[in-house]
């Protein structure tokens, strides 16, 4: 039987293409995931270790800047040298122009501790007291050069520093936009975060003995080992998420492989019968089929390892070239991942072939003596299948309802899986019914060829359902993600509208130049610009002197600029709107009053709060007229196109602000960043789900191809009765489109329902009332793409069928 099995694999190798592709892609997915996670871990570990170059001892637990200073003194007293790794966030301006409200400032070792300096000098010199070194990429982006003056912070804690040079620094936890010496950091970053204190020239025991027990003192190697483990834990979470998509691909592979074996073994019933006639037992036939499946699975899994290895290395190399700032290390494939992926590929193939193999080995020996007609099995879904499907749908629906009411992820995932299994069990009933409904239209439009396509598609309900099941999984998941992300995006945009009503603003302490609005309109990506009049008014609050403040009075037609509905657009005559920062600094609460002082006269206004208006106050035009003798353009409120590049627009506006002595601010960069994250997330998920769709499409093409071989005599008879090659190709292509199109439509409908449930369960509690948003164009595109994929899958089988002459087809065995 071994020779028979090997001969069968050689003879029927081309018919196993779908199974080979399915297993290869699924295993390659697993190997690629291992390549990406290993490279990411290596990059993170190397990046973390870079900031501890030269260190021998690490002290943790300092917490505050004051404690860190005492730790440095203790290390110096013990005969060593110490440096502090700390970060703070503060405003930064260059030559008087604000470039960032929350620039990230780090520390750089200096003086006797230069051996602990880990930043690499690119240009200029390392900073000393009163100097700052700027990260090379930040300097390029901000237009900062050696010799410029940078002001960090504001008020009495502001520090003017000269740019001594640029450095290449880590993107790890200690990486920052600029670096100052420890004495300067103690001034500007007094409330910053102290990560750790590093030292050299002193032993762990000596330093530990000199410090209170609340501090942790470790050798640098031990500290890095623990930190690396914590840091890479997030990568492990990502790996698990990627393996979820690999599991989906494997599940689709099971459906495709099972269908392939079912069709193929049904076609080989006469071969099995002949084997039984010459003395082979049923167990030997079953063992031969399982061995055949083992060989297919082992070969496919091995091919998957090769494909995944090549693709993983290529993907990491491309990421390193395209995103040099992202820490990516070398690929180190794990034997556990490789062995596990290979074993999964083999097990998937074997498990998917079990039922078809058992069914195929039951053929009676006398079946070989019967005429070998085309196999037409009019199987129907039995009562047991319907009962099991109803039970699965009931249990799944109950779990989904529980997830909506409890906002928990676990019952949502379980309910989605169980209910979808119920839908798959109803496939032999639902899918043929849907095809017949569509076929009514197709039969009227395409005539006999269309009716033949419908009849062929539904002649075997179980095979039809199995063929569409794999594609149904992929389309449902993709549609669910598209609809879910569109719903989340809409709700997030509404929240962003409340936090960032103004995309960008340009505000001056004096009257703006008359041509400035036209210069802003000329920036690519700017949709609209609204000049806003204002003046300078001294505002005083309870125990707080706000000082001379720019007070704006928006015109009545400004709603086209402002996103969302906000009260500050039309303030009351006795109201003044201030940013949240004013309240946080003064301890104000909603409803308190502010005094506007002009020439010694006070006008009391009701204090209100507004998000995203910048460092200004907003009043009604009539209120402003009563406070100042004349108004002029003091600000520009800017609306940006939704698809504009945030860096280009804000960069151009910042350059314009520096040239005109104005201040640029606004929430568009934050809005664009959130939109980018959602786009990247959706693109990544759809791309990973596309692996399962590709496997499903290959399965549709393979099943149709096997069916074509099975119906060779039938097609030959149709040709002999007058059906042209062109009409035969149309019939088979229409059959493929019907299968894929119905799967696409059903998947789009199911995906929309699952998306609504998922959004309600996952983010409903955080967002509140969730309104389902269906991007109809994208949903229709997914369904149409499925139908087109089916059409492409049917090209080769239909062309092959049309090339067989009627005489050759009727004479085929």
Automatic annotation (TrEMBL):
List residues of the ABC3 transporter permease C-terminal domain: 244-363, 687-806
Question: Which protein, by its recorded name, is this?
Answer: FtsX-like permease family protein
Membrane topology listed for this record: Multi-pass membrane protein
Q: What is its main location?
A: membrane
Q: Which domain of life is it from?
A: Bacteria
- What residue intervals traverse the membrane? 12-31, 237-266, 293-316, 336-355, 386-404, 416-443, 464-488, 680-709, 730-756, 776-796
Q: Which UniProt keywords apply?
A: Cell membrane, Membrane, Transmembrane, Transmembrane helix
A molecular function (GO) term = transmembrane transporter activity
- Give the species this sequence originates from: Nocardioides iriomotensis
A single GO cellular-component term from the record reads: plasma membrane
Q: Which Pfam families match?
A: FtsX
Family assignment from sequence similarity: Belongs to the ABC-4 integral membrane protein family.
Q: Where in the cell is it found?
A: Cell membrane
């Amino acid at each position: 039987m071994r020779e028979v099995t090997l001969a069968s694999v050689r003879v029927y190798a081309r018919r196993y293409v779908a199974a080979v592709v399915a297993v290869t892609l699924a295993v390659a997915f697993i190997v690629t995931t291992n390549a990406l996670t290993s490279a990411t871990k290596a990059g993170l570990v190397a990046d973390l270790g870079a900031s501890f170059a030269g260190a021998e001892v690490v002290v943790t637990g300092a917490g505050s800047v004051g404690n860190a200073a005492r730790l440095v003194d203790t290390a110096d007293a013990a005969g060593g040298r110490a440096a502090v790794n700390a970060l703070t966030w503060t405003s930064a301006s260059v030559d008087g122009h604000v470039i960032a409200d929350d620039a990230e400032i780090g520390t750089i070792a200096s003086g006797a501790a230069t051996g602990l300096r880990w930043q690499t000098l690119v240009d200029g010199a390392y900073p000393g007291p009163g100097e700052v070194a700027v990260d090379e990429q930040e300097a390029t982006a901000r237009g900062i050069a050696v010799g410029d003056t940078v002001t960090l912070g504001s008020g009495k804690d502001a520090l003017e520093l000269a740019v001594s040079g640029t450095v290449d620094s880590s993107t790890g936890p200690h990486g920052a936009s600029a670096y100052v010496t420890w004495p300067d950091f103690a001034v500007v970053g007094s409330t910053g975060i102290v990560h750790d204190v590093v030292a050299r020239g002193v032993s762990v025991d000596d330093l530990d003995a000199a410090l209170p027990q609340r501090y942790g003192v470790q050798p640098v190697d031990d500290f890095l080992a623990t930190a690396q483990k914590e840091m890479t834990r997030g990568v492990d979470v990502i790996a698990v998420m990627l393996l979820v998509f690999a599991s989906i691909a494997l599940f689709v592979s099971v459906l495709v492989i099972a269908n392939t074996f079912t069709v193929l073994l049904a076609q080989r019933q006469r071969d099995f019968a002949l084997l039984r006639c010459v003395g082979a037992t049923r167990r030997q036939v079953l063992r031969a089929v399982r061995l055949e499946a083992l060989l297919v699975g082992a070969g496919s899994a091995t091919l998957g390892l090769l494909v995944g290895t090549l693709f993983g290395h290529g993907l990491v190399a491309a990421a390193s070239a395209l995103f040099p700032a992202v820490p990516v290390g070398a690929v180190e494939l794990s034997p556990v991942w490789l062995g596990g992926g290979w074993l999964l590929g083999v097990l998937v193939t074997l498990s998917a072939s079990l039922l078809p193999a058992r069914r195929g080995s039951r053929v009676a020996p006398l079946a070989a003596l019967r005429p070998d007609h085309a196999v037409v099995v009019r199987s129907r879904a039995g009562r047991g299948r319907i009962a099991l499907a109803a039970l699965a749908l009931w249990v799944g629906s109950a779990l989904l309802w529980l997830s909506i009411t409890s906002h928990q992820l676990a019952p949502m995932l379980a309910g989605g899986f169980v209910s979808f299994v119920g839908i798959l069990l109803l496939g032999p009933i639902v899918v043929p019914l849907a095809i017949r409904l569509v076929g009514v239209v197709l039969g009227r439009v395409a005539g006999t060829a269309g009716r033949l396509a419908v009849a062929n598609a539904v002649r075997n309900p179980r095979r039809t359902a199995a063929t569409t099941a794999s594609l149904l999984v992929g389309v449902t998941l993709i549609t669910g993600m598209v609809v879910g992300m569109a719903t989340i995006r809409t709700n997030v945009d509404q929240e962003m509208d409340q936090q960032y009503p103004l995309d960008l603003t340009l505000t001056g302490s004096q009257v703006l130049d008359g041509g400035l609005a036209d210069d802003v309109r000329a920036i690519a990506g700017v949709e609209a610009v609204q000049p806003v009049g204002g003046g300078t008014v001294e505002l005083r609050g309870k125990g707080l002197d706000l000082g001379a403040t720019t007070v704006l009075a928006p015109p009545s037609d400004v709603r086209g600029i402002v996103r969302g509905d906000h009260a500050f657009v039309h303030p009351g005559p006795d109201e003044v709107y201030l940013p949240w920062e004013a309240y946080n600094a003064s301890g104000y609460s909603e409803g308190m009053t502010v005094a506007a002082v002009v020439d010694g006269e006070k006008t009391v206004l009701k204090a209100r709060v507004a998000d995203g208006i910048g460092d200004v106050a907003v009043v009604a035009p009539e209120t402003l007229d009563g406070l100042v003798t004349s108004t002029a353009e003091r600000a520009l409120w800017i609306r940006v196109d939704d698809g504009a590049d945030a860096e280009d627009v804000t960069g151009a506006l910042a350059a314009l602000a520096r040239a005109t002595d104005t201040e640029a601010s606004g929430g568009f960069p934050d809005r664009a960043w959130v939109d980018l994250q959602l786009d990247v997330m959706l693109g990544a998920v759809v791309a990973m789900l596309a692996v399962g769709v590709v496997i499903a499409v290959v399965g549709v093409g393979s099943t149709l191809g096997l069916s074509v071989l099975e119906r060779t005599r039938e097609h030959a008879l149709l040709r002999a009765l007058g059906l042209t090659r062109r009409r035969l190709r149309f019939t088979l292509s229409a059959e493929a489109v019907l299968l894929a199109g119905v799967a696409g439509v059903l998947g789009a409908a199911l995906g929309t329902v699952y998306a609504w449930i998922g959004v309600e369960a996952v983010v409903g509690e955080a967002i509140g009332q969730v309104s389902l948003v269906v991007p109809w164009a994208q949903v229709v595109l997914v369904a149409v793409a499925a139908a087109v994929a089916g059409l492409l899958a049917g090209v080769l089988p239909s062309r092959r069928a049309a090339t067989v002459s009627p005489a050759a087809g009727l004479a085929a065995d």
